[in-house]
Structure formats: structure tokens, C-alpha cells
Amino acid sequence: MTETSRPAADRFTPGETLYRSDLRFRMWEYTVSHSTVLFRGDSAPDGTFTDLIFKPVDHLDVPTELDGVTVRYPTEAELDSPDRCFMVESGGATHRVTAAAFWWDTVHGDQRDFSRFADPDEHPVPWRHHVLPGTTAGLRSPMAPAAELRDALDGRHRQVYAVIDPRGGIASVRLTRADAEAEARRIAERLGDDAYRVEATPVVF
Predict the structure, then answer these.
(1) What CA–CA distance (Å, rounded) separates 185 from 174?
(2) What are the pLDDT digits (tens) for 71-82?
(3) 16 forms bridges with which residues in the sheet?
(4) Is 76 within 8 Å of 16 (Cβ atoms)?
């Protein structure tokens, strides 16, 4: 299940509640290029979690953790600026986010998944193309130890693209989505099964 909701840009009712939840939310991501702030909620009993997105953000006065949250439009008394803003209530306190837009996205999945609003393909980090020395270990081709691979990644956040088979296993891993999709097509042609898909997976050491 996926449910995305966004207040109408041309409608504003002072004090109107836009979103409310008793779950805990944590600041999950900030994207500099689009000034996007994302708060991710804990998993709900039905296996869903919700992302709260503010974009583009000019001013942020919100704790990094929210134990229960209500997002609403400001009241007439709180409208002290022509800038569009949203009030965030949590733990008996009221905070302000100055941003052009707010919406929320509820999905089934793992909390570690990438947000649908933080596509890793949008600003890909280029990989350095060079051969790692590795060790032969008596095999026909060299193998790079994990430490050597870690050093090659420069400690920066990156992701690889896994080709997932129909049973959910990893059939292959590639450094770019284009390479992974090409590999998925080759596997599908060879095995006569087009149920292979590509998923972005963060590299974590």
C-alpha cells in the first residue's frame, strides 16, 4: 500500500490540521540541493511507516525526534510573515517550519528503505573506475578484501544496484542502475523469466 497526501497549494485555512500521528518520528534526511527535510516515523502495527516531507525549507525550528506529531497551518495570530510556513506540535511544544510545501507518504516496507522522495539516481555519486589490487587466494581472479573496498569508497555514502530474483534473492550486483537493468534483461533472456527487478541498496561497512 502506498498513500501520498499533499495539501492543495491554493487552499489555506488558518489553524487547519494537515497530519496527526501518535508515533515517534525522527529527522531522517536533509538534501541540500532541494532544501528538503524528511522525518521518518516508526513502523505502525499494520507494517507501514510514514515519511513527512518539507520542501524547500528556508527555516527549521524542530527537534530531531518527535514523540507524536501534529502538522498544521498557522493560526491568524501566528501569521507574522508573508512566507508560507507550517506549525509542528509535539510533546506540548509548537515549532515552525518555513517551507513552500508539505506532504506525507505512507508505504509498506522496511524502515531502512530509501524514501521515494530521495531517489539515489537524482544526484549519483560517480564511482572511481580502477582495478583493486586484491589477493589471488589461489583462485583464478583476484579478490579485493573488504577493507580495501571500504578505502576505495572514500567513506562516502554510496549505493549499489542489486538484481533481485523472483524469490527475493540477489542474482547480481552492479555499480550503476543502467548496468543492473542490462544484467536483469540478460538474465531474463537466458532463463526466459522476466520477473527480475532492480533495487538500490546502500553500501554500509
Answers:
(1) 13
(2) 999 998 988 776
(3) none
(4) no
